[in-house]
Amino acid sequence: MADRLWYEDVPVPLLMREAREVYRDAIRQALIAGGCDDVPRNGVFVLAALDRRRPEPKFSSQADVVSWLGLSKQAASQLIDTLVLREYLERRTDPQDRRRMELRLTERGSIAAHAIRQAIDTIDAKLAQLVTAKQLHGLRAGLGAYRTIREQR
User: What does the alpha-carbon distance between residue 35 and residue 58 come to, in Å, rounded to a whole number?
Assistant: First the structure.
């Protein structure tokens, strides 16, 4: 019988926590280096999603933030208010629908989004050096399946 690899007996949630911490630490360091050390924890997801250079996820309104992050309307509103107050985001009336408010990155928000993107890309590149393309595809497919599970609840 072949020796088992250390991670084969570790519960998946603990492995996911480790991955999250690797990305979180890299992003936090990049934000600090970029002078954006006051981005709230969930603000990272908002800024990254509003970064037009990233293909997914895309959203531009508070309702999108609520839906995508699974936050309550109140929590999303507080998060957006904080990002606006700290000059990462600006709100504008949607020219197509005057009842809807658009969210856009400010210059400072773009700097933070760039730092976030570079940190993620750096960790992704390191990961790609440690696993095969097939393994990476399997990892993405497995993690993507969690969205399906969530949507089926």
Answer: 25
> In this predicted model, what pLDDT tens digit does every residue of 96-146 receive, in sequence order?
888 877 888 999 999 999 999 999 999 999 999 999 999 999 999 999 999
Comparing CA positions, the residue from 61, 70, 58 lying closest to residue 91 is 61
- Which domains, from first to last, does the chain contain? 10-152 (1.10.10.10)
CA pair distance 150, 63, nearest whole angstrom: 18
Tell me which long-range contacts 55-61 makes (C-beta under 8 A, separation of at least 24): 59/103, 60/102, 60/103, 60/104, 61/94, 61/100, 61/101, 61/102, 61/103
